[in-house]
Amino acid sequence: MLGNRPFRQWILAVLVVLTTTTGQAQQYFFGHPVIRNYKPEEFKGGIQSWGMVQDDRELLYIANNFGLLEFDGATWSLYSPKSGTKVRSVYVGEDGKVYVGSQADFGYFQPDKQGVLQYFSLADSLPQKYRNFDEVWRIYEQGGRIYFFTFKNIYSYAPGKKVQVLVPDTPLDFSFQVNREIYSLMWGKGLALLENNALHLLPGGNFFADKQIASILPFDKNQLLIFTIKDGVYLYDGHAVAPFQLSQEVVGNGLIINQALLLKDGNFALATQNKGLVLMDNRGRLLLNTTLREGLLDNTIHTLYQDTQDNLWLAMNNGISMVELSSPFSRLDGTMGLSGTGYAALQKGNNLYLGTNSGLFVSDVSSPKKSFAPVPNGTGQVYHLSQIWNQVMMGHHNGPFLVKEGQATQLYPGAGAWEFVPLPNQPGKVVMGTYKGISLLSADEKGLTFLKNLPGLEESSRVLEFDKDGELWMAHGYKGLFRITLDQKKEEITSVKFYNSKHGLPADHLVNMEKIGNELIFPAMYGVYRFDKAKDRFVLDKKYSSLFAPDEHVIEMEEDVQGNIYFISNQRVGKITFDKFGKPTLEDRLFNNLREQLNDDLSFIQVLDINNVLFGAKEGFIHYNAAKNKRMAPFHTRLAKFYTISNESDSLLLSGRLLDKSSGLELPFALNSLRFVYAASFYEKPEKTQFQYLLKNFDTAWSEWTTKTEKEYTNLPEGTYVFQVRARNIYGTISEAKSFTFVVKPPFYRSTLAYVVYTILGMLLLGAAFYQVDNRFKNEKRRILLDKERKLGQKEIEIRHITNQSEQEIDRLRNEKFQAELDHKNRELTYSTIHLINKNELLSSVKLELQSILNNGGRTPSQEELKKIIRNIDQNITSEIDWKQFELHFNHVHGDFIHRLQDQFPNLTPQEIKLSTYLRLNLTTKDIAQLLNISVRGVEISRYRLRKRLCLDRSDNLTDFMLKF
């Protein structure tokens, strides 16, 4: 059991706890912090920088030899005072102005109408006798006034008022502000306090009369910690001065302090003249010393500043550096004497062994100077480090090695050694995986001894583990898994069974093996699997597989003593933790920055103890301090500049604070091609910060994430737009979206005034057109009416003509019909008349015959009877019934002739009326005589009488008169 992993981890945890309790300083940084350097060529400024400060927008301002540097996380800008002198100090006032002090000048920067910082000198308003001073090294604000400190005078400025001059009795050295109090060192007198616009020597302050003070910092409620440049550090309680003891590691040889800074975690950072950056705790013990060798640009640091995200900025003699003090990650690389890619690690006591492709290295972690030295005979590819029987074993390309007494000794020459695994319940035996199979070693307190190779498996055996049943498993990354059964003595292989995709695994290759919770799990090409012994197959482990993406391949997993699991996959690096109910939580945001730095050959994780984890990197190792919680401070995205684009050049519209405050900016249509420049106030790996933008009323959705810090839009149509931009840092944290509203006004021909003019003109044109149309319509209407009237007249004529023709035709047809009817009636009358005539003729003949009979005296009926017959015939001849029938038809045919004749000539006798009707029928005199039963002579006489009745002339024809009547 001495060799199993949980026990080793427990031992390591105890050792680390003991180490941390006896020396907190040793655990501040395990390796070197991540440093980001900015060379003068990058920020285009002078090599020397001095004061530093951030404004409320988290923009960084730096006093530089070439002027005032501004850094927004993406872009450096340089602003020079009008004199072009070196800027030595900088301060952002509560009014938002950036106050600067330079050589023989001081003043402030404030934005112009475009938001570009412009310099305004305050020193130019001074009387000539106060104008002669050298440099302004300090700027402070107190009681609504800004104080500019030179070595000669103090200048006090209240915004909107004249500059006041405070002239001390003696020359001054550097000044300091602590807890809103301003202190200054008076040469030859000591430390003084500024009160009521005058410097007053403090009790005990004369102790510093001949000492240069670098910084004054609060130590506790009652004491100040005073750092001198080269005369040590002291505690001051307002009355007396006492030395503050620094460890020898801090003091070193000739420590020169340029500035000290109280960090947010309570430790102190020292900017030195010759030793780079020094961190110490409140007991004066060294925590970290970072110099040019560890990655700084220079060993001379002028000024320190800790930003809102706890990064430490260094203004140096040759460039600017940022140290990620807040990061839980640190580097173990070439800056510590380590070379090559990290493959193996092991901590034994205070010694930390690291194996790379270059060899084995060791460092004493208890030493303040954490550096690595190569282990003799350890050169070459190292694969694995194990501690067995208190011995350090190394798996090496040349075979197994024992590390003892500061050097590596090869156990025996042979094939490369991958890994050492103690046999369960047999602490004296160790199984070793080699290039050619498995070997058996014996282990004791003296070391390891090769026993023999185990035939039966000739595969390269890099990953070996025993399951809880005592069976040995070997994972081959390109073939599958081997289940190896040993004999009872664990000295021979009795059987080997091979498993691949035919046994439940998703693929034959990329199968790994990990021991988590004393059980074997098998991360495959995708998904995490367990072996079901009853089914002799691999089944998906839902507990772990559910934590990863369906296509995610887990490469490496390592468990700490609390059951937390660190992992590396093909997509990310992270940590799995479990709550008290066993519910897992995966955290990967904090590790986002690691993936591209890690070893992509044989990924490696080593848990040294509960708080310290090593990841194999392309260059050495990355150390993760689990006890150092990274504060995910919110950061901001801001619009830096707003340009209009043209063919010739881009023109700046707004920038800086004015752009932050501006909203609803109206732009003429000619400026409808725009460029936005933006940045995020996140300074860790700013080149990895990504941005996403959206132009409302133009874009339909947020853009894809991009590292570009600007966006152009061309030929925007008129309208109101809202440009939004947000950032995502390396930890996946997304800032709030920054919005900017602007209006693109329509072109003059589509402006409101234009539309009013268009409306008026349109109305006038419409009116004119309407008038024209109306006039044309009226004329046309008149013409149409006239034409219509003409046509109607013609139509009326035509209609009248047609009507006449129709009427004539109708009359003709009616006449024809009437004539036909008349003819018919006439025929009927004629027939009736003929009938009557025939009847009368018949009767007349009968009458004549009867008369003849009577006259002849023949044998005939009696005379009376004959007379009677004659009378009846006479009655029939003169029957009124026939006449009435005739009269009815005659009137119908001849237009009521009889009635009209009677009306006009009422004196006519019935005999004369009958004569008139017969004349109308144009009957002959003989026929008329027959009808009237008179003689022809009687007819003539009746005609004569009728003429008299009708009052006709002799010349008038009676028949014609009757026909026309």
TrEMBL record:
The regions listed as transmembrane in this protein's record are 753-773
Boundaries of every Two component regulator three Y domain copy: 683-745
Keyword Ligase appears in the UniProt entry: no
Task: Tell me which InterPro entries the record gives.
Answer: Ig-like_fold (IPR013783), Quinoprotein_ADH-like_sf (IPR011047), Reg_prop (IPR011110), Sig_transdc_resp-reg_C-effctor (IPR016032), WD40/YVTN_repeat-like_dom_sf (IPR015943), WH-like_DNA-bd_sf (IPR036388), Y_Y_Y (IPR011123)
So which domain of life are we looking at? Answer: Bacteria
Give the keywords, sorted: Membrane, Transmembrane, Transmembrane helix
Q: Which Pfam families match?
A: Reg_prop (PF07494), Y_Y_Y (PF07495)
Its recorded name reads Two component regulator three y domain-containing protein
